[in-house]
Amino acid sequence: MTQFIFCVCVILCLSSYSAMSQTFNESSVAEIYEEWMIQYERSYANDIEKEKRLKIFKENLEYIEKFNNNANKNYKLGLNQFSDLTKDEFIASYTGLNTYFNISRQTSFSSNIEPSKVYHIPRSIDWREKGAVTNVRTQGACGSCWASAGLGAVEGYIKIKTGKLVSFSVQELVDCTKIGCDGAYVIDGYKYIIANHGIATEESYPYTEVVGTCQHNKTRTTQISRYITVPPNDEQQLLRAVSKQPVATHISVNGDWSAYKEGVFTGPCGTNLIHAVTIVGYGATKEGIRYWVIKNSWGPNWGEGGFMRIQRGISDKRGLCGMAMWPTYPY
């Protein structure tokens, strides 16, 4: 039976935790932990479980301190709502491996493959600045990243085409496909919109984080005719596509993703595609580090306002975290 891509959930940075240059003793860790529990409204079934989570929290706190004190890193980590989970628990609980469909062995995924053409590519672009990116979503415990990522690309395309920025309904895709919160592929969302001649707005069909009854009576306000697959494993072609509109892609994540706070993420993270995001721009730092800008679905307090900068132009043709393996966009 096909197992689909799951998604990772919302992550926040603890405001009271700003610097970690000290050596933590038991009392200071306990104090930070209690503050963290209050901020994230965390409670446990019993004291044994609480003590277990405190130990993990302390290990994560020390890991973040050590990581952030490494001057060779281009990004920073911070505490978040997953700080009482081990990395293995985080990966096991909030991601899922598709063992049936081996993406790395595919050369194409639809009949609509973007042809390679000579095209002027701007040095940088940010679709947020052009008003083509809606607010960051919070997927919660529902594995709906595939829907959020695909709709991010659809919303950008519709804004560029019509001049109107509208947030479309993730919940409709969750309720009205057989996939729901169990994870899927971005193209499943495109196919649904094409087959049903559009999709409802977020306002008329709001997100609930659980699978509900499909509401077919909602007014459909947009339409796409097809979707395009960017030539796999070609960051230059991906750059070309993103210069024209936001693009959805599948991506690999590791334990450090859960605590990402700021900067250009440089890996390592492998190519096990278990998450989906929307690429909404690209650029370079003043130091010359080239990056993609991705919109995630873990809430606006994760990362850089809900976004991440991730390194581009690496030697691996698949891109960092498999960014270039399976990017698609609506048309």
UniProtKB/TrEMBL annotation:
<dbReference type="InterPro" id="IPR038765">
    <property type="entry name" value="Papain-like_cys_pep_sf"/>
</dbReference>
<dbReference type="Pfam" id="PF00112">
    <property type="entry name" value="Peptidase_C1"/>
</dbReference>
<dbReference type="InterPro" id="IPR000169">
    <property type="entry name" value="Pept_cys_AS"/>
</dbReference>
<keyword id="KW-0325">Glycoprotein</keyword>
<dbReference type="InterPro" id="IPR025661">
    <property type="entry name" value="Pept_asp_AS"/>
</dbReference>
<keyword id="KW-1015">Disulfide bond</keyword>
<dbReference type="InterPro" id="IPR000668">
    <property type="entry name" value="Peptidase_C1A_C"/>
</dbReference>
<keyword id="KW-0788">Thiol protease</keyword>
<dbReference type="GO" id="GO:0006508">
    <property type="term" value="P:proteolysis"/>
</dbReference>
<keyword id="KW-0732">Signal</keyword>
<keyword id="KW-0378">Hydrolase</keyword>
<dbReference type="InterPro" id="IPR039417">
    <property type="entry name" value="Peptidase_C1A_papain-like"/>
</dbReference>
<feature type="domain" description="Peptidase C1A papain C-terminal">
    <location>
        <begin position="121"/>
        <end position="331"/>
    </location>
</feature>
<comment type="similarity">
    <text>Belongs to the peptidase C1 family.</text>
</comment>
<keyword id="KW-0645">Protease</keyword>
<dbReference type="GO" id="GO:0008234">
    <property type="term" value="F:cysteine-type peptidase activity"/>
</dbReference>
<dbReference type="InterPro" id="IPR013128">
    <property type="entry name" value="Peptidase_C1A"/>
</dbReference>
<dbReference type="Pfam" id="PF08246">
    <property type="entry name" value="Inhibitor_I29"/>
</dbReference>
<feature type="signal peptide">
    <location>
        <begin position="1"/>
        <end position="21"/>
    </location>
</feature>
<protein>
    <submittedName>
        <fullName>Putative fruit bromelain</fullName>
    </submittedName>
</protein>
<dbReference type="InterPro" id="IPR013201">
    <property type="entry name" value="Prot_inhib_I29"/>
</dbReference>
<feature type="domain" description="Cathepsin propeptide inhibitor">
    <location>
        <begin position="33"/>
        <end position="90"/>
    </location>
</feature>
